Amino acid sequence: MAGFSYKDAGFAVGIVEKKKVINGNDISTGDVIIGLSSSGLHSNGFSLVRKVLFDKAKLDVNSKIKAIDGTIGDELLKPTRIYVKSISNLLRHYKRKKVIKGMAHITGGGLIDNIPRILPQGCSVRITKGKWPVPEIFKVIQKKGKIDEDEMYHVLNMGIGMVLIVSKHFSSSIMKKLKRMKEDAFIIGKVVRGNKKVEMV
Q1: Do β-strands 160-166 and 100-105 pair in parallel, antiparallel, or remain unpaired?
Q2: DSSP SS3 for 157
Q3: Total domain count for the chain?
Q4: Domain containing 82 — which CATH number?
Q5: CB-CB contact of 85 with 177 (8 Å)
Q6: Which H helix or E strand runs over 102?
Q7: Do the domain assignments include residue 168?
Q8: 41-92 residue pLDDT tens
Q9: What predicted TM-score, i.e. pTM, was given to this entire model?
Q10: How far apart are CA 96 and CA 92, in angstroms?
Q11: Is residue 183 part of a domain?
């Protein structure tokens, strides 16, 4: 008898008025970068993660490491954080288009690969490492895999799951609002002159 296999797939479709689209065109030098914390890996970079933890370090899903709570399996299965409620609240509050100028979901690559997609010509981003806590799982992966730090920021979110690029004049009020919504948010950098690059300093 022939076997059958099933694959589930899901997607979402949305609609927005053209004048309300946030496409990054209004981003300019001096704008502030706000990072919202991730819960961990966010199901991203698992080819590298499996190679390091399972093939190279010879761990398995039941292995425990002092640096993290629970097992490797528990850590890898942590749900991806969803930011829609907080972002929607911000957009309703700051209706002017030039307050929140750009947004980047840090998935399918890290900070270095995702942020340039929303930058206009003439702009780059300078991010200061150490402005947010990096979850221990990333440190474990880097150490056991002997991975260059630059590669880590290319492939993994390193503790930042969503980035907002906002007007510097509103950055303090946006941070206060995010804190009131119980979001772990950090000012992690700024927009500088450049050619759509991310500089980690």
Answers
A1: antiparallel
A2: coil
A3: 1
A4: 3.90.650.10
A5: no
A6: strand 100-105
A7: yes
A8: 988 888 899 999 999 999 889 998 888 888 999 898 899 999 999 999 999 9
A9: 0.87
A10: 9
A11: yes
